[in-house]
Amino acid sequence: MDLRTTYLGLALEHPLVASASPLTEKLDGFLRLEDGGAAAIVMHSLFEEQITLEEELLDHYLHYGHESYAEALTYFPKASEYRLTPERHLDLLARAKERVSVPIIASLNGISRGGWVEYARLLEEAGADAIELNLYYIPTDPLLSGAEVEAMYLDTIRAVVEAVKVPVAVKVGHAFTAFAHFAKRVEATGAKALVLFNRFYQPDFDLEGLSVVPTLTLSRPYEALLRVHWIALLYGRVGLELALTGGVHSGKEAVKGLLAGAQVVMMTSAVLEKGPGHFRTVLAELKAFMEEREYASVAEMRGVMSYQKVAEPAAFERANYLRVLGSYRLLP
Amino acid sequence: MRPITVDGNEAVARVAYRLSEVIAIYPITPSSPMAELSDEWAAKGEPNLFGLVPKVVEMQSEGGAAGALHGALQEGVLATTFTASQGLLLMIPDMYKIAGQALPGVIHVAARALATHALSIFGDHQDLYAVRPTGWAILVSDSVQAAQDLAAVAHVAALKASLPFLHAMDGFRTSHEVQKIQPLSDRELKALFPYEALEAFRKRALTPEAPVIRGTAQNPDHYFQNREAINPYYLRLPRVVQEAMDRFAEVTGRRYRPYEYVGHPEAERVVVVMGSASLAVEEAVAHLLERGEKVGMVRVRLFRPFHPEGFLAAVPATARKVAVLDRGKEPGAVGEPLFQEVAAAFALRGQGVPLLVGGRYGLSSKEFTPAMALGVFAELEKDRPRHGFTVGIVDDVTGSSLPYPEVDFEDPASVRAVFFALGSDGTVSANKNTIKIIGEETPLFAQGYFVYDSKKSGSRTVSHLRFGPNPLNKPYLVQRASFVGVHQWGFLQRLPMLGVAEEGATVLLNSPYPKEEVWDRLPRPVQEEILRKNLKVYVVNAYELARKVGLPGRINTIMQAAFFKLSGVLPEEEAKARIKKGIEKSYGKRGRAVLERNFQAVDLGFSAVEPLPIPGQVTSTQELIPPMVGEAPPFVREVLGPIALGLGDTLPVSAFPPDGTFPTGTARYEKRGIAEFVPTWDPNVCVQCGKCVLVCPHAVIRAKVVPEEALAQAPEGFPHRKAMWKELSGAYTLAISPDDCTGCSLCVEVCPAKDKRNPSRKALNLAPRLEVREAMNRHWDFFLTLPETPRADLKLHTVKDVQLLEPLFEFPGACAGCGETPYLRLLSQLFGDRLVIANATGCSSIYGGNLPTTPWSKNREGRGPAWANSLFEDNAEFGLGMRLALDKKAEYARSLLPVFRQTLGEELVARLLEPVGPEALEARRQDVALLRERLRGLDDPRARDLLAVADALIPHSVWIVGGDGWAYDIGYGGLDHVLASGANVKVLVLDTEVYSNTGGQASKATGLGAVAKFAMAGKPTPKKDLAFMAMSYGHVYVAQIAMGANDAHTVRAFLEAEAHQGPALLIAYSHCIAHGIDMAKGMDHQKLAERAGYWPLFRYLPGQGLFLDSKPPTLPLREYLYAENRYRLLLQTHPEEAEVFLKAAEEAVRARWERLSRMASAPEAVAG
Ligand SMILES: Cc1cc2nc3c(=O)[nH]c(=O)nc-3n(C[C@H](O)[C@H](O)[C@H](O)COP(=O)(O)O)c2cc1C
Fold first, then answer.
1. B953, B979, B1006: which is the final residue of a domain?
2. Domain range holding B880?
3. Closest ligand 1 atom, CA of A267?
4. Confidence (pTM)
5. Chain A: residue nearest B753 by CA?
6. DSSP state of B1012
7. Which residues of B are less than 8 Å from A88 in CB distance?
8. What does the pLDDT look like over A201-253, one tens digit per residue?
């Protein structure tokens, strides 16, 4: 049985990839993911806001209260250099590259095309095999149209693609009016893959303090269906590789993803819950399925359930919606 | 080498560092930067001249540093230290030893005043004079260049003479003046260095391989002779110094002499002076020479050993009258120390002794100008010039002061710029940058000197810059400015700033108003001065531009650019490029975003500045706001007022109390109005919990519950609401003083009450001060007239009730959001009217006792904390002495009482003999009043005695207050002793975990892995456990508290400490500006510290054991540590070490928690 696949031009042992997670914040995490059986590792993101915020904070505290009072003209020693997050991030990436043999995909998270795009190049220099660009943006401005947001996205993608030689993947959320069209335009930028989809983290209300509090819940398997659906719709219709992220917890979701047309499927929540060894478990389940259905290779099963190939494509469209609602009404 | 622009401290440290192997340090103003730089360079691995990184070690006191210095010298190692003032005094015992043993150590001193009637951090020669008998050679520098050069001479000569050297520059005037100087290269230093002498010194090292013994004890038959055996060393020393200076001249081309003469070769009048003032005298001499007068000056560089022959050789034989100027005071002496030497030198010569007088000048950095020197020369013209004169002040008590003329000594070819700004707006940094640019990138000379406020919040800075084609050896403030920068519009109404501007000078205003409105908004006196002097005024709205580029409040770059544009020191494009380069140098390491914003600011600064059209007539009726408002007593108005305006120089001697005793409660008259936003109160949302009152570091929020009737006369809109107390009825009201508020917003942060209709609003909400201040002031004034809530009705262990107590500590000039002051305010609320406070030197003695106005205050009856500061190192002992004295006086009073049984009445005597606690305070006060009444007028010395000590019958409480530098380091021995003594004193340690007042140097209270000065690579050892040490006695009440973590616990600990019959120690977590946190969130950081287990709350009650009052840690330690720049910084400079430290810190926290839990579960075992 041939589990091998390619993704972003990289040769992988199998199609199960570790999506960005805090596990990669330490060198040890990379080693554990590789040991656990991940075929490639997406490193946690370098956040645009974090870069600026950290610079601002450092600058603020190296200035705050200074030159105000004769006995205490400063409050901190002067360092000859500061190694801020980007540098530490780059360092870690370089060290991880030395230690693990599976490919490492670096991730940039941001939306403006400011100076931080420069970091894409630095990530490449530090040894990243590819760059994943995460465009996580909440368009709260009522004056900003969808077209404008999309233009901003594409602009940023183009800037990153231009900045580096390694392939670029684009990770986005699903909240688009016409996602298939957007995917087409991403293709035109020169990006190589779409990573579907970001989960949006909904802030919660603290009823006691009447305040808004951030929450982070890990995903559940049902969330994979949205991704499976869109991958099936897009497979073969855009010139981009499709990676599935979100809701993959067992071999079942992995299989669905591949059948829909995913080039690779990714896991974070399940790994955080069950440990990096979970890759091996899911891989075993995937193999078991392939054996049972006699698929000789991943390539053979990829996309067989896609919009293009499935016998009744309408199942993916509005008809399906009606059916679902109908089935709901018929419930006892 | 290219010239550099540095201040005196850096100039000296660059030399001392390269010529040392062991450097023992301890922070003290103004010498700390020399130690800080050495530590930074060592942390970065910078080698010394011999390719080795010197060992830099922080000690627990200057005494410790001197001990380490002595030890290192015993081992034949090049050793140095830096200090000043009290620090130098603490070194005296070791200095005698080092000199007695002929060891070539070097101490670099930023010479500073001594604490006498008051402490002063500023410069004079009192500290040098105090160590003149120790046997150390003393070399004194007059400028930044000389400080660097003579630092090298000191190291070289010490080795060659085999005697220790003290090298001094004038504190602040030279140590902090930025000057363009010629640096000493490694090559030059190597050429100067006496390698053979080092070899000889090394040979004297203690070694078991060839053992000797040093430091013996000697008897009457031989000590004397042995003491005289060293004489040849001293006899040859002046020659050694001269040779070292000659060699220095050969290598560098810069020539110095131990005694330098400047002036007419046949001068009749000569002034002798030492230090920076000699440069001013030199200017006066030049001025008089031009006028054909026969005058001259001798600059003394080698003060010890004083070399009479050398000195006399420098004085022209024609000198008939000599005045010796001393920057010091030795009460009771015939003359000050330099005078004594000079007089003795002439007397010993025995012939041609001129008429000699001596006088004092320049104490505590008092300005000394060439004009003042003219005054001295004029005095010498008299037949009988005054001896023991002063110059630079008006002495209307003993008439010692000399008059002096007004003469302009500024160089018309120079640009002289004075900038008035706020510390927080970055002006000083930008100006330092400007000096660097002009000094290092152009052939011009450049000089900068900076004057700071004595407040730590909203403090003002005044920058004095000079640039020009001629050397700028002017050791005094700019006298006539060609450029005045007013960087804060708010100052226009308060400070007389244009006085310094010369006719036709350029004035740059940072105005929040459009150009068209500016003129009419200027106060009348400002308009008048502009018209009278024909000033050219320009405006720029730097506030708005700074906001626009994303640097709100940081107007410095914009104003700097505007200065360059208007002053024309450099062509515009070049100036722009150079400023940007400077910015890149200083901000580049902090990331691109910051850099870009500053670049933008530069461009805007150049383009946005515009000339102000001046209508040619006064249109304003606005007057200046007087510095002291309200019904200020005359002393406050007439003495403290001018000080607050920066006009303290105009006050005569008679204005001051000879013993340095000042009234308390004066901060309330100085409404500084420094907050942009202040909290406003919404009574309908408020739950009356009192947390805001409790955390307010400046006591500007107050609460009372008053009878409804009391509000009958309330001004319109006076906010109040029905009191939500079971036990109290009436109206609850909360008042806020907008013009005393610093805008720190701690109160808003802790306010738990949210408006349920609009959760973004709380019971306290920030509003622009200028919009709300009028009504709020009316409300505040009325609030103060309302009756206090009777104490008897309150449950003091609840925060809700404590808020109603009147604070007797208000409006300290501490940093906005200070973490220390809330504890002091609470202390004053709880026990203020019976408090005697011994306050260690440090932040709390500065915001507690720095003039003009001070925060400790009085209640309506005129009672309140009585406060005194002795020193840094002796505070526990100082407080103990007070306690012993109070007890003794009480004992004496009790012993006298029976004598007056008849007059006083049996019952009163019996009651007064009864020992009482604080609960009976009021009754006892009435009894003492009764006693006074009955004894009054009795013609009996014993009655007068009893009256004099009767107050001691009232149970007064002694609190010993200080920071961690005192309690953990320099004062620990005394603190330990006082706690062990069992005396009934209470100790409050305001633990900021660094020496906050001197700028954040590590103490033994600093946490593992924290970055602080002197611990640039992270503090390698865990925080000392002071609580455990105190608990080990068993009889000391100990509590670790953090108001932000649990305010009720804090209140309880204060009450228990006070009630404990014996010593008590409160260790109070005090967040601090030196932690690198958002001060508004200070209380949240305290909470994090507790939840992470770093700062568990506990109380140890003797006899009952330990009560662990915190829950087990729930927060990972890193989430507390990395919320603070002091820890995060290490992550950014030494990431690997940071990880290691974090693990160790986690382990230390866990171990400490376990130990505490064990103790808490077995209280008896501990209590035993
Ligand atoms: C704790 C946590 C941290 C994450 N950090 C990142 C990140 O740095 N960059 C990123 O693109 N996605 C990040 N993600 C999203 C995951 O990579 C992934 O897309 C998402 O969790 C959905 O996949 P899952 O269902 O397998 O968890 C994070 C998710 C979690 C739970």
1. B953
2. 875-953
3. 26
4. 0.92
5. A209
6. B
7. 1131, 1135
8. 778 888 887 888 888 889 999 999 999 999 999 999 999 999 999 999 999 99
